[in-house]
Structures are given as structure tokens and as C-alpha cells.
Amino acid sequence: MVGTATEGSIFDYNIYCDESCHLEHDHQKVMVLGALTCPQAEARRVADDLRDLKVAHGRPPSFEVKWKKVSPAGLGLYADLVDYFVREPLLSFRAVLIPDKSLLRHDAYGQDHDTWYYKMCFTLLEKLVEGGDRYSIYPDIKDSRSGARAAKLHEILCSSRRDPDCSVIRRVQPVRSHEVEQVQLADLLVGAVAYAARELGCSEAKTSLVRQLQSACGCSLTRTTPLSMRKFNLLRWTATQP
Question: In whole angstroms, what is the distance from residue 37 CA to residue 240 CA?
Fold first, then answer.
């Protein structure tokens, strides 16, 4: 959570979620879940600011920002987006990095991949919704099961917070990333973490963004940061052997 509340005050926050390589058999070892937090009252202004950056770089406001689109020709826009995240004090980001999905042994723990996926989503979000405020969570639509996953995640989060009437976790509503600027920014930050974890180094533009983010936030994109680091917080989660 970003910002300091006065005693007794309650704020509404939007949390925008994205993920990379969440499927069990996608032939990718690295998986990243990420969440960008923004005060609800500032969500429209932030979205307008992000659209203005696109226009300033000769892109239409409807241009969809995605990590996979990063290239030398578009580096200026993406560098400015990273800089905007760093400079905007009301934005914060948390990620959970799973460096090697091949180590997972679901059968040894009596679970399937979906159950483990919900556990990782909970691990990502639990530290963001533990205050006395209210939260609306907007995950990116990934596939036809996104709605069911969102409903299940909402149930789990409300149960953990003893929130039967959903007054704290107000909604978990899947959205389409091309319609929500903050989800696009979350995609960019998730992509940077995943790229750093894969140690690819094959794109000068992407490597430049990783270095920019590391330098500005003062942390590695592949190692666990202290919970006190609110601006850019990361948990490196490694499977333990049963």
C-alpha cells in the first residue's frame, strides 16, 4: 500500500494484476505474478498521464503497452513509463517470482496446479490488503477461465480477512489490458522481473529497462526485498522438496 493514512481514516485502493507464464505446461521455467497499487481517487489521473506519455511519443492513446513490444525504436516511451512509475509517489508494485516451475511437485502436497496458483495469488496480495482500507482488484483477462479464477480468488481473500460481506475486498474483476492503462504498466514491470530472472540479455532495449528500474528502485529484480520496501517489493519463492 502507498501513502500514509491519518488515524481512523479509510481509503479505497485499486490493485491491478498481471502475470507471466502461469500455465503448468507452457515450457517456461520462470513465472511472475505482479500487482500495481493505486489510490482509487487518483486512478483516472494516472491513466490520463500514461495515455499522455503515449501521445508524446507519437503513439495513439489506445496503443497497448506490453513488455513483449519493447524494442529499440520504442525505448523512449517505455523508459518514460518506467520513470513515471518511479516518480509517481502514489504508485507501488509487488511481485512474486517463481524462478523454476519444473521443481514443483504438486502430487506430494495433495494439490493440483490451479490450487497452487491460488496460493501464489494469495501470497502476492496478502501483504497489500492487510491494512484497514478497502480494495478493488483488477486482474488481466488471460483465458476463458479468468472469470472463475477471479471469483475463487475473491472468496479466498475475503475468507482470510474475515470479510463475509466483501466490504474490505470489494471486488476481484477481470479486465482487458488494452482498456486499462495501469494493467499495461503492471505488464511492463512483470515483464522486467521475468526478463531479469531468465538472464536472457538478448535485447539491448529490455536490458536497458531492467537496469533503469534496478537503479531507480535501488534493488535487484531477482532477489527478495524487505517488506519495508513498498515502492518496489519482490518475493522470490522457491519450491521446497517434500
Answer: 30
